[in-house]
């Protein structure tokens, strides 16, 4: 057993009776979290839940009251995490030739986890817990829970070993055969952001462990209590507690754990700044799901403007614009402008309200920072506020977070393309702010030029049922998750298709068997050559 500075607390259920009634694994009651009754989060290392010496509180995003106490792990306390990862062999906890029964074990664990999440009270529990820490509309929070449950359904039973399936090719002679195997990395890092507190860590964690890795998991401190609850639920349904470690706290501390533990691979989801730092610190051994500056092009064929306005509004402003897939820039063909789309967008945006969290707190951009960005955009010649651009009123969202109206700034296309404006216009605001622009038939090439100059290649949408138009845009762009057709959107990220960026050899994916194989395993070729030795063999030297 590793030395640990943590106190052992694994058997305690320190939260109220109501949660014990819900299920024995639930560690916090989302409806009981208040300033006078804060929830407590725990670290997990080598199978033991515990606390470091220091803790910190995080403010309730709706009123600023301290409502969750988090382990504030310090650098002199990280040794158990480092040692735990270092103890994992490169060949993993299982692989196609070792501990194969664990594929079956995970098939059963994941089936039971899906069953647990299908209980209405468990779906409600996770929905409310997500909403408490990352306020979003019930439909958005619930979708995250349902996608997670459907992913578990997809990867239960034999699908675990099917995902790790090998392939064989006949050799040159009897007894020879080559087999391509999916091999684990062994010790791995898994870091995820605040905006999908359940879905991203849950899907990546499952991918990591089923392929035979042991991950050190870290989720943004503002929401990390949610993935802790998911991990506790997995333990409840049979996942070995030593199969993953979990550390709350500062990113810089996690950075140091990874540098010292030297995981064989790390999946990072978050900002481009941290992605590049980790890439340097971990010598390139990373897979990345980083920033999203996501575009939508509305083609020349106008139809169903009310529907299109609704999709655009959902893409830009659901979760208060805090989706990596959020629509950041809308290229409208002039036909759409003539059809009055901008007014329809404004009407839809005006329906959003704090009461139902269809607009709400922004966790990483303050109100001042977002308004300052809007002001800078407005200095561009011809730029104007299409709608929004003001702080939300009548709320108690603390100043450390942001609160502004759904906002759109129109910037002329030729100005966007200017060297001095391009970086500003294409800065990802992780909040409810988008850029609108207009193009004519003759300017399609300029749109393609703008798309070529973008750095982020996550999601995109080509809204048109004109196949020649759609093909032209698709053929000249690279985004990893691109929707095409009149119903195209930029957001969604369900469990039934690959989600991730493209155009970067470090690009990761999430959701599908291919994504799991890419991110959480490497290729190993084993060539068996067992004979017989050919009759009449005569040695020659060449
Ligand atoms: P962030 O990079 O600040 O934080 C992400 C995670 O990294 C957090 O868990 C944080 O604690 C951790 N972290 C911070 N510094 C670290 C370090 N030095 N070493 C290790 N870990 C560290 O991200 P954010 O700004 O809070 O999140 C929003 C960003 O995430 C946006 O750019 C968004 O587009 C992106 N995102 C991308 C995807 C995707 O699939 N591509 C999904 C969600 C969010």
Automatic annotation (TrEMBL):
Query: Which Gene3D superfamilies did the record assign?
Result: Aldehyde Dehydrogenase, Chain A, domain 1, Aldehyde Dehydrogenase, Chain A, domain 2
**Which Pfam family name is an example for this entry?**
Aldedh
Entries under PROSITE patterns matching the protein: ALDEHYDE_DEHYDR_CYS
Keywords carried by this UniProt record: NAD, Oxidoreductase
Q: Which residues form the Aldehyde dehydrogenase domain?
A: 60-485
The protein's matches in SUPFAM superfamilies, at most eight in alphabetical order, are given as: ALDH-like (SSF53720)
| Family statement drawn from the similarity comment of this UniProt entry | Belongs to the aldehyde dehydrogenase family.
Protein name, as recorded: Aldehyde dehydrogenase domain-containing protein
What is the organism of origin for this protein?
A: Coccomyxa subellipsoidea
């Amino acid at each position: 057993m590793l030395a640990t500075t943590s106190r052992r607390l694994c058997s305690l259920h320190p939260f109220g009776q109501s949660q014990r009634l819900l299920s024995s694994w639930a560690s916090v009651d989302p409806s009981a979290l208040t300033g006078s009754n804060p929830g407590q989060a725990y670290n997990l290392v080598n199978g033991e839940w515990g606390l470091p010496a220091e803790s910190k509180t995080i403010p309730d995003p709706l009123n600023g009251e301290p409502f969750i106490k988090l382990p504030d792990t310090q650098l002199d306390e990280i040794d158990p995490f480092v040692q735990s990862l270092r103890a994992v062999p490169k060949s993993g906890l299982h692989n196609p030739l070792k501990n194969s029964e664990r594929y079956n074990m995970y098939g059963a664990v994941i089936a039971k986890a899906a069953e647990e999440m299908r209980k209405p009270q468990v779906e409600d529990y996770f929905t409310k817990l997500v909403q408490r820490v990352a306020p979003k509309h019930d439909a958005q929070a619930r979708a995250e829970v349902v996608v997670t449950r459907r992913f578990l359904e997809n990867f239960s039973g034999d699908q675990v070993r099917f995902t790790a399936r090998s392939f064989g090719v006949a050799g040159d002679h009897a007894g020879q055969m080559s087999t391509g195997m999916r091999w684990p990395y062994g010790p791995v890092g898994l870091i995820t952001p605040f905006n999908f507190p359940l879905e991203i860590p849950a899907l990546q964690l499952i991918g990591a462990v089923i392929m035979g890795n042991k991950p050190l998991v870290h989720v943004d401190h503002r929401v990390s209590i949610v993935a802790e609850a998911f991990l506790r639920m997995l333990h409840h349904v049979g996942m070995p507690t030593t199969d993953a470690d979990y550390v709350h706290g500062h990113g810089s501390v996690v950075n140091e754990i990874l540098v010292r533990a030297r995981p064989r691979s790390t999946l990072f989801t978050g900002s481009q700044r941290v992605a590049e730092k980790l890439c340097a610190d971990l010598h390139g051994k990373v897979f990345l799901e980083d920033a999203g500056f996501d575009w939508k092009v509305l083609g020349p064929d106008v139809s169903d403007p009310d529907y299109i306005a609704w999709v655009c509004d959902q893409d830009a402003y659901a979760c208060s614009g805090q989706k990596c897939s959020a629509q950041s820039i809308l290229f409208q063909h002039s036909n759409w402008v003539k059809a009055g789309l901008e007014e329809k967008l404004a009407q839809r945006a005006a329906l959003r309200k704090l009461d139902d969290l269809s607009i709400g707190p922004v966790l990483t951009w303050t109100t001042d920072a977002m308004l300052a960005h809007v002001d800078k955009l407005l200095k561009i010649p011809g730029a104007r506020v299409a709608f929004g651009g003001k702080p939300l009123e009548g709320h108690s969202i603390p100043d450390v977070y942001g609160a502004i109206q759904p906002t759109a700034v129109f910037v002329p296309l030729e100005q966007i393309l200017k060297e001095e404006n391009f970086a500003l216009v294409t800065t990802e605001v992780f909040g409810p702010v988008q850029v609108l622009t207009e193009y004519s038939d003759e300017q399609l090439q300029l749109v393609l030029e703008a798309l070529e100059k973008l750095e982020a290649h996550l999601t995109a949408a080509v809204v048109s049922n004109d196949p020649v138009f759609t093909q032209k845009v698709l053929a000249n762009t690279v985004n990893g998750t691109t929707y095409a057709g009149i119903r195209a959107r930029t957001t969604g990220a369900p469990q039934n298709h690959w989600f991730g960026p493209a155009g970067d050899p470090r690009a990761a994916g999430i959701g599908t068997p291919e994504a799991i194989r890419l991110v959480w395993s490497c290729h190993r070729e084993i060539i068996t050559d067992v004979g017989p030795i050919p009759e009449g063999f005569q040695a020659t030297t060449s």
